[in-house]
Amino acid sequence: MQTSQQGHGRHVIVIGGGVVGLTSAWWLLEAGFRVTLLERAPEVGRGASYRNGGQLSYRYVAPLADAGVPLKALQWLFEADGPLRFRPEADWRQWRWLAAFLANCNGVSNRRTTAKLLELGELSRRKMAQLAVHVPLSEFGWREAGKLVLYRTPALFDAAAARAGAGQVVTGAKAAALEPALAGLAPQLAGGIFNPGEAVADCSAFCAALARRLPKHPRFEGVVHGRAVSLFTEDSRVVGVETADGWLQGDDYVLAAGIQSRDLAATAGIHLPLYPLKGYSLTAPIRPHDLAPAISVTDFEHKTLYARIGDSLRVAAMVDMVGDNPALDARRVAGLTRRARESMPAAADYERIEAWAGLRPATPNSAPLLGRTRHANLWLNVGHGPLGFTFACGTASILADLMRGNAPPITLDFIAWRA
């Protein structure tokens, strides 16, 4: 990764110390900028990055908005352990987001967004490989496990298999042969799609490893732990960010604070189409006699993924549209635990699970928001939804290109921010 001086020493305040903010800080440092990182928590990587699913889905993406999803969503609402929960709010942002989401629930929009996200995924895969020179993959449990997406309904499986470049199409029996942990589930499967190049890793450990490197960079100005309250603007420029502990000022400002970016942007008169999709995960220890999956597995219709990360099994699922409350819902945790026990009963010690919930900042079409706002020195790198770990290196490198005035390596349709 070559260091450019095109940043000319400009001082950038990166707001957000999750995986997107940390990678943004790194690529901006490498591009010649001076960087201060502002993070509200005492430690970095403790928000949506902390216990995510761990899958790095570079070659397989499935935007939530698609034809037929509204009808499926209605069905899920009546399932005891269904993947969706919805609570209406007296908040115009929820309803505006839902209207835009429904407008994207068609095959044309889904195919366009999928194609762009696959481009972004390939770029991010290459950038992660470059970063590994500085942050060894072994420090965050990176493993090229491959990814197996399972389908229970023949029609859905046939549609997935017909997509160009979908991956290796396998029967249910072949899926169980590839991954013995699926032996008991095989009779319920119509088939699966296998992509051998996909990876898993510990996002929290990745954040910690990258945070250890930042202070060694000669242009890094440090981490400020404090809650950003508002942005102040004058003459179409941001002149400072107010925190709970005082002011911070720089030449440029980057919003990479997950769902908190929505409220901060609003203080500068910018309304971001973001909504917090609450997701859950379980982390269960794997004992010597357990049959944990070696391959990363996604149960498509149950919207549940399974990934072995080190000596633990990570199970992640669910989309709760219930506002910005990150608290654990015991019923949802119990439902996810039941689902894991039914699908992979011998995979881990489910009596010792650690449950987690996080707010994933999602856009209506599942594509992140990236680029300059109407304020000349305010930039966005937000809206990655459940794919923050997957896309973080790619969007960080694009952000650095844009802020230097360079053309990005891919076109930014469906990604670039448009006020």
Automatic annotation (TrEMBL):
<keyword id="KW-1133">Transmembrane helix</keyword>
<comment type="similarity">
    <text>Belongs to the DadA oxidoreductase family.</text>
</comment>
<dbReference type="GO" id="GO:0005737">
    <property type="term" value="C:cytoplasm"/>
</dbReference>
<dbReference type="GO" id="GO:0055130">
    <property type="term" value="P:D-alanine catabolic process"/>
</dbReference>
<dbReference type="InterPro" id="IPR006076">
    <property type="entry name" value="FAD-dep_OxRdtase"/>
</dbReference>
<keyword id="KW-0812">Transmembrane</keyword>
<keyword id="KW-0472">Membrane</keyword>
<dbReference type="GO" id="GO:0005886">
    <property type="term" value="C:plasma membrane"/>
</dbReference>
<feature type="transmembrane region" description="Helical">
    <location>
        <begin position="12"/>
        <end position="29"/>
    </location>
</feature>
<dbReference type="Pfam" id="PF01266">
    <property type="entry name" value="DAO"/>
</dbReference>
<protein>
    <submittedName>
        <fullName>D-amino acid dehydrogenase 2</fullName>
    </submittedName>
</protein>
<dbReference type="InterPro" id="IPR036188">
    <property type="entry name" value="FAD/NAD-bd_sf"/>
</dbReference>
<feature type="domain" description="FAD dependent oxidoreductase">
    <location>
        <begin position="11"/>
        <end position="402"/>
    </location>
</feature>
<dbReference type="GO" id="GO:0008718">
    <property type="term" value="F:D-amino-acid dehydrogenase activity"/>
</dbReference>
<keyword id="KW-0560">Oxidoreductase</keyword>
